[in-house]
Amino acid sequence: MHEAADGGLARIRVPGGSLTPAQVRALAESAALGDGGLELTSRANVQVRGLPTGAERELAARLREAGLLPSATHERVRNIIGSPSADGRELIDVRAVAAELDEALCADPALAGLPGRFLFAVDDGSGDVSSLGADVGLRALSADTAALLLADVDSGIRTPLWQAAGAAIAAAEAFLAEKAAQGCSAWRLAELDGGARRIAERLGGAAAASPVSAVPPTHAQVGRVLRPDGTVSAVAGAPLGRLTPEQVDIITAASEAAGELRLTPWRTVVLPGVRPDEADRWLPELGARGLLVDPASDGVGVTTCAGRPGCAKSLADVREDARRAAPAGALPVHWSGCGRRCGRPPGRVVEVLATGAGYEVGLDGATWTSAVDVDQVSAALGAARRNV
């Protein structure tokens, strides 16, 4: 836990994004120790804000009891995103591989020294999380083989699925060794000199005969997602990544009915493989409490950092301004309260950056326009939708 402008902030890792109903309930109860809400992050983790001084002991006890804090030494490095597999077409059981990777990670004392930003990804074969900037990725090629990706680049290494977690661990160990050899303070694999190439060489990699093709980053998908077995996944988005106490309550109830909840890097929650009539029940209830369940909803694809008053570094109340501005359109939109751009999604994103005198709106590193107020931001976003 660390201090933010609005109190203590705790980040809870959810490797692979999968939660049991009991764990969802534990998160809801943990949220009550703070401001009652939950934040979903771009790494499919959860944050609790507004925690009073001294709450960390009670929070840790609750999380440990729920199986959400298995290692005090490795907690900050348990960053593992996984394909949500909402469409039921996954080649592998992402949850099982992520759990095996998490266990192996926590069992390796040296890997407690990984930077907190170091990220693993387990991809079901669709490519949906293979372009999200993970340092080490496993992408299924078949039901029993995976490709090892390094900083989203195919290393050429192929591994049997039963050895996939071990291959990812070896890559993380190679990162630490190469970092020490270069004498640098890199937080991410791509920050190393010749990062992906040097790590692949340490692992004995070579160019693959059929390299894994890159897949452009996808964005938030909400509503009903059909599955081959006749079931559906019900997917709901958290407006600006934030769940109110009432929304936490309804999601908890829905997860208990569905038997599982999956968090995604797009700040959505998935009730996987439910009957169509169950989806017809839960989606309207989720929508009635302000969750995004219609793909045409204005809030789909819009994200923000914490902004004022939660972050002392922020130059604006970006959440309130984002609610008043135009919807995302063809590309996602991310609002940042300062130049750190916390929470920015990967890939092409229209960026709205607070400057103290208003906002700058830009794309691909170039500023399109400077806006004094939210109305001008809305006009700029409208132009972006027409030109992208």
UniProtKB/TrEMBL annotation:
Which Pfam families does the UniProt record give?
NIR_SIR_ferr
Report whether Iron shows up as a keyword of the record: yes
Q: Does the keyword Iron-sulfur apply?
A: yes
**Superkingdom, according to UniProt?**
Bacteria
- Keywords, sorted A to Z: 4Fe-4S, Heme, Iron, Iron-sulfur, Metal-binding, Oxidoreductase
Please list the GO terms describing molecular function: 4 iron, 4 sulfur cluster binding; metal ion binding; oxidoreductase activity
The segment(s) forming the Nitrite/Sulfite reductase ferredoxin-like domain are 6-66, 229-288
Q: Write the protein's name.
A: Precorrin-3B synthase
Natural source organism: Saccharopolyspora antimicrobica
Q: Taxonomic lineage per UniProt?
A: Bacteria, Bacillati, Actinomycetota, Actinomycetes, Pseudonocardiales
